[in-house]
Amino acid sequence: MGRIPHRPGGPWTGILLAASVLGSCLQPAPAQTPVTITPPSPVVGGDVSLAPQPPPQDFTSCFWYRSATVTDPNSLILTYFQYPNPVQNNGPAHTGRETVGPGCALNITGLTLNDTGNYTVQIQIPTAANPILSTVVLRVSEKFAKPTVTPGQTQVPENGTLTLTCNTSPHADTVLWLQNGSYLTPNTRLELSSENRTLTVLNFTWGDTGTYQCEVGNPVSTERSEPSTVTLAYGPESARIDPPGPVNLTLGSRLTLTCVAVSVPAPSYSWFLNGTKLPQTGSSFTFDLTTLNLGTYKCQAHNPVTGLTASAEIEVLGSPPDAPRPGAHSSLSTGAVAGIVIGSLAGAALVGVGVYFLYSRCRNKTPRENEAPVLVYENLPPTAWAGPVAQPGSPPDLSPTYQTLQPRQPDVYEELKK
Description:
This protein is mostly beta strands and about 425 residues long. The chain has three domains: about 10-140, Immunoglobulins (Immunoglobulin-like); about 150-235, Immunoglobulin-like, CATH 2.60.40; about 240-325, Immunoglobulin-like, CATH 2.60.40. It is about 15% helix and about 35% strand. Strands 11, 13, 14, 17, 18 and 19 form a six-stranded mixed sheet that branches. A hairpin with a 2-residue loop joins strand 17 (about 210-220) and strand 18 (about 220-225). The protein is rod-shaped, with a radius of gyration of 60 Å. Residues about 1-30, about 325-330, about 365-370 and about 385-390 have low confidence and may be disordered.
């Protein structure tokens, strides 16, 4: 038996296809054998080998199909005849990247995602009553790029709805969601689309704030998106203007008004003077006070997410440079000046009374000043007194002799010296 020539598109191709189909219809039920895939997780751009196990011995031919059956001639990839000389004939499903290796293994190079699918081999062995027929599913995976989450950053009003979308390859096997690093599971407020690519959080609360990520995976790749921060939008509930009013300044003075409102995100601002909208849009503005810009100033703070608006008003007054300015910045009133004068006079009177009182006390303590007589005492000789008469020859009387002290009357000279 001579070698079967190989001419793609020649008459032999049609003959082989017809023989294959006819043989599959007439032969008994084929035996089954497993097919191993090497590597087990082929990747885009790589190579793969589909090998029947165990490798068939003394087979005469094998047919590889890109299908789960051998009934469609258009799914034939190639036919391999081993005897008398090895030869490969390519079929309609051949892409130019398929060859046969030892043991009737099908080798495919430069894999693409389109190579994913069912592959069936039919092996003819003369000693076997039935042909060997096996089917294997080839899955070609791609290495994912880092997915992204849209919107990348958002604010959600309280009791609002958060919707996030994971942007990645449509061939991802798994799509998971994480909040603050922990995997999420669906519940009554957390909904996932059919392929988990869209996350919806209902009735958003403070506990739902934080960072959100999506994670995609397949047998050869697992990637997470960058964290996407989600905050709760609130406010403004109130507003105020600094400095507080009423404000009264000298005409020509420079004044800065600032609108203060607590809001997330930061609110937009509008200013009004006497009901007319001003061109200023920031939270504050500075101007020189003139007679043309006096009146009632109003600021409005608006949160575009919550839709809330808060406002505040103050009165701005102005005085000529030489005129007294009433209010918090004016000079002392007439009543205040009179009070200060009366208080000063009362204090002076109290001081005078105190000085007079001290002076009077000092005069009462001086004898010359109060004309009180000064008592002067003098010694008088002892006065003879009746008693026993000393007898001649008796010892002397050693009893002490006392003199009498009595006040001395001043004479006229002393009176004149005063």
